[in-house]
Structure prediction request, 291 residues.
Amino acid sequence: MTDNDKNLRLAVLIDADNAPRDCLQGIMEEVAIYGTPNLKRAYGDWSTRNLAGWKQALLDNSVTPMQQFAYTKGKNSTDSAMIIDAMDILYSGNTDGFVLVSSDSDFTGLARRLREAGQFVIGIGEQKTPSPLIAACSKFIYIEVIRARSEKTVKADQKNKAKKAEPAKKTETAKKTESAKRPEPEADAAKKPEPEQKPAVAGPRQIPDSIVWLIADSILDLSGEGDDDYVPLSAVGNLIQKKRPDFDSRSYGYSKLSNMVRAIDRFEVEDRQKDKSDPGSKIIYIRDKEM
Prediction:
């Protein structure tokens, strides 16, 4: 992703009937990676009991609730309201892209139409999302990936709080009898919390063959006719995203695509200096050893 991509003006439209409210903050943090959410709206019938728990999440993330009553019992009119709003926003010309938060295939046509208008469309939904909606988006991100990242952040915060609280606990203990403290070093050691184990990172063997072939085919598509079979990894990543909008290296335990390809023996990765005067200007290149 280029710097220009990161400055996209994004309209975030949330189908509250088909999105988890407990991930709203994580969703907004994910959106910030791709651009600036200039507009944030959540659609639903807020008079119903099942959406009552959204209030605090909407307030905390400055998301505007858009009320849509059901015209007929058992029928959901939220989708049509969200689609109409999306088209109005599109014609206003104030956005570069849309974020559609829903697992409902009814938004497939909307995603397709927005892309036809030159908009960058990010879909966010659960793994149950139908493939037509995924394919209609420029990029698709699974809620499960966002939730996993949010859980890691929460655990890290809890760990930091525990570390800060530890000196205070030691001070309180020191105020008590020193003699009672010294004879029981083993007991004290037993009371200390065990260090938090880091989640296992998926290894090369856990990466499906289909993903390895996807990377290899993308390298082949981008390779030139010269002797150098290396291609920029950023170009490979962009091509993979076009082929598979739902591709995300985090789904396989890797924070970045570069970490994933380095773990696969089939590929050879090389860091090249773009500007010799600037040590930080490195470009990652990759080649397929079996090509």
Observations:
- The mean pLDDT is 82.
- The radius of gyration is 24 Å.
